[in-house]
Amino acid sequence: MTTYVDLVPRPNAHHRDEEPTQPGDLLSARPDVVLAAAGLAAIAALVPLRGVWVAQAVLLVLVLTLPGVLLVRALRLPPALTVPLTVPASLLVLLGTGLGLNTVGPLVGVAAPLRPGPVLVALEAVCLVLLVVVATRRHVRTADSVRSFARHSWARLLGRWDLLAPAVVPLVALLGALRLNAADSLGATTSGPVAAGTVVTGSLAVVGAVLVLGALVGGLVVAGRADDVFLGATLYAAGLAVLWSFSLRAESIYGYDVMTEFRKMLETIDAGWWNSFRPGDAYGAMLSVTVLPAQLHALSGVSAEILVKVVFPAVFATTPVIVYALCRRFLAPRWAFLGAALLVVQPNFGQQMPGLAKQEIGFVLFAALLLVLVWRSGSRISQAAMVVALALGVVVTHYSSTYFGIVVLGGGFVVALLASAVRRRWRQLGTAWLAGLAVVTLVLGAGLWNSTITHSSSNVSDAALGFEVSGFDLLPNRALGDDLLTGYIKGNTTPQVSAPEYERLVTELYAADRRYVLPVPDAGSYPIADAGSAPAASIPQLLVGFGLQQVAYLMAAVAGLVLTLRRRSSPTERLVGAMILGSVAALAMLRLSGTLAQAYNQDRALLQALMVLVVGVGWSAQALARPGRRSGAELDPSGRLKVVTAGAVVMIGALFALNSSLLPAASGGGRINLAGGGEDFQRFYTYRAEVTAARWLGDQPSSKRQVVYADRYGTLRFLLGTGRQVGVFPEIVPAVIDKSAWIYGTSANIREGEVRSQTSGQMATYRFPREFLDAHYDVVYTNGTSTVWHR
């Protein structure tokens, strides 16, 4: 039997009801209600103190947990779901409250409803309604539940000193990232190139990465003896450490897409109101980067920068915990931990997700949607209500997650429906109808939100236009003479071209579409030169990294087939098997089709699909470790378990070491979490001096009427500093630079002397044409990190 702190129940746990509470003894018999009321009072009391950092931290914890617990309990969902659903349910309450407040506020005379006063009143009112529902309903305890508000469970949970060990891991990662930033700031004023993949050995950041590896491997080893709360805490700590090691690795905002998202956050926070009419503005139409951060800022006083760099990653770090709970619905703790850990060790879990604020929130809600779909619930109505709420939450937080979710859930529902039709056993549909409900909600919600409410459906029309122009575009990067397997391994990565070839492509582009550009007379005498080849993917990376990923996909696909086709599979297992097969098929199509890959980034789709696939990976590992029989003699169960566990440790350890820069030579160059230079550093690291230079340039009156040139990553710094995207060209090539243009050079251009730009779907890295700029333009601004040229 499980203990009171288990995250999810063990199989065959028996439920028992408490004696119903007496109305006259409500407070003494329901300490959960008392503590919830105290939490709401604490929020109201601390909001006036939101300028103090301690109050900010407490407010964020309360706001991101208390509303969710109340919602889960008001719906009377299984108590075992309280912990994994706490954060996503809180997000639902915040999103719903914020959207309603933003809509109703102006109608009743509140011009800026997303200010502290209105936001606090609205949230307190909604939570009080939920609290009343919880307090007036009969309270049911089960032997396998997490009694989050019960007096004794709080006392015992606070006495769990073993939970302090995982907490050290993200703290070390945080300090390590800040220490590396300090070193980078000191080196920002120096000149000369920085070697790609330079790893800061012996630093605190390396210690943090080693601790993450130890936590994941150690969790696999002790999973048979540890309870679910400890394993969940370990996963959360490891995931948060990985995310913070990347998100905090910049003086300013870390990431790529987040530059645009950050501007949307600032606009909404400054206005105190969100304009829902967003024609062609998919980012501005997402509540995850508009209304939600405005609410969190209003309640806690935390700046938008801290929300992006610290808070959003802390929210997204709950995804592995939710996935662990999803796996535990079918698997033993060790194999459930393996599945969730496989998500954490993906290369883009830490590298890309902290720079995708909207997708961080969307993924948390999508993972919670999958969990609610497969969990047994006493009330189908409550379960269906939560499914609809989570599906709508995904719709308003991230468009691509919505579309890919339709494919995954829709494929699972169709396969389950066909299986029931073939067997003529319609009762075996079981919870598949909930998947159908989720698909309908996603489709209708996306259509209504993107087309009717926000008018932001340009991404759908762009994808449709891509198919009309290019068709399926099978393996676009497959070189002449490559076989299908080689083309598949290459995938849909952006091909690299030489500097002369890139110059030719750019010149043709300007001659056809930008004839108004007038270069200086002798610009053609300054051809661009290659900056040296980027570090090539090494043999270990190709053989170990790619091979281990394919092994995981194979394990998932086999599990999906077995769960879908075998007779004794339960309806829920058949649904999960069907979703696994649908996810594998969707990932294969993304890798084969250049048009589909253009519509949804393959790496991000992989992370979303893994939320389902890891169930199959864990199921296959569990099946391999299960005792079997050969020639009538039973095999040694402990020996088989040790072999499969060792294989799981090798898989997790090797993938993390390759993808985290712990083995930079094997991974083809260090990532930004441990590196002080190279492509990864140039792409994601933003100096405050770069933003300062961009703001200075944006403030010049003539720059608003003239073209600004900045390379691929310089355009992001310029966007962050000015909010401007129109009239910014990424082709810093002398032959196409207008004679009256402004040229914005970033740290990568000035210190490392490199330019990275892309045109016609092809990327080039070439030498920054400083000699040409100094000969024909004046340096009108410089701060040692960034320089601006103009005539």
Report on the structure:
This protein has 791 residues and is mainly α. The protein has a domain at 687-790. It contains 34 helices and nine strands. It is globular, with a radius of gyration of 27 Å.
Descriptive tags:
34 helices, membrane, 791 residues, mainly alpha, DUF2206 domain-containing protein, transmembrane, 5-stranded mixed sheet
Helices and strands, with pairings:
Elements (H helix, E strand, L loop, with lengths): L25 H4 L1 H16 L6 H11 L2 H9 L7 H23 L11 H21 L14 H8 L5 H24 L16 H19 L5 H20 L10 H14 L19 H10 L3 H13 L1 H11 L4 H12 L2 H5 L5 H18 L5 H18 L1 H25 L8 H22 L4 H13 L13 H7 L8 H15 L25 H27 L5 H22 L1 H6 L2 H24 L3 E2 L2 E2 L2 H23 L4 H4 L11 H6 L3 H12 L8 E2 L4 H9 L5 E2 L12 E4 L1 H4 L3 E6 L2 E6 L2 H7 L1 E5 L4 E4 L1
Parallel strand pairs: 3-4, 3-5
Antiparallel strand pairs: 1-2, 5-9, 6-7, 8-9
Helix pairs in contact: 2-3, 2-6, 4-5, 4-6, 5-6, 5-17, 6-12, 8-9, 8-10, 9-10, 9-15, 9-28, 10-13, 10-14, 10-15, 11-12, 11-32, 13-17, 14-15, 14-17, 15-27, 15-28, 17-18, 17-19, 18-20, 19-20, 19-25, 24-25, 24-27, 24-28, 25-27, 27-28, 31-32
